[in-house]
Amino acid sequence: MLPAGITIVIGTLKIHRDPKYYKNPNVFEPDNFLPENAQGRHYYSYIPFSAGPRSCVGRKFALLKLKILLSTILRNYKVASAAPEEKFRLQADIILKRTDGFRIKIEPR
């Protein structure tokens, strides 16, 4: 039992990079989310919008909007990072973000 008024922080970075659920956890692999690859995976192994009865009510809308935005950008522009991933310094806030911002290069296709 936890004491009343306690604050709990869930380490989503660790959850989302758990080798128990993702064979190459530190590499971005979109195929991890294909139905055949997600089948049998624990429901809470990926929780970008929280989970359970108090999860984000806008989750489906946010994911749909994100897919539309990303597909539009990626169809029309080349996007590259100005720094290698090994040099990213991350900060946990309401969302996980880089401490120095996202330094990217965007060029029309």
Automatic annotation (TrEMBL):
Cofactor(s) it depends on: heme
One Pfam family this sequence matches: p450
Superkingdom of the source species: Eukaryota
Protein name per Swiss-Prot or TrEMBL: Cytochrome P450 4g15
Assigned keywords, A-Z: Heme, Iron, Metal-binding, Monooxygenase, Oxidoreductase
Native species: Eumeta variegata
Family: Belongs to the cytochrome P450 family.
Protein residues bound to heme: 56
Matching InterPro entries: Cyt_P450 (IPR001128), Cyt_P450_CS (IPR017972), Cyt_P450_E_grp-I (IPR002401), Cyt_P450_sf (IPR036396), Cytochrome_P450_Monoox (IPR050196)
GO molecular function terms noted in the UniProt entry: heme binding; iron ion binding; monooxygenase activity; oxidoreductase activity, acting on paired donors, with incorporation or reduction of molecular oxygen
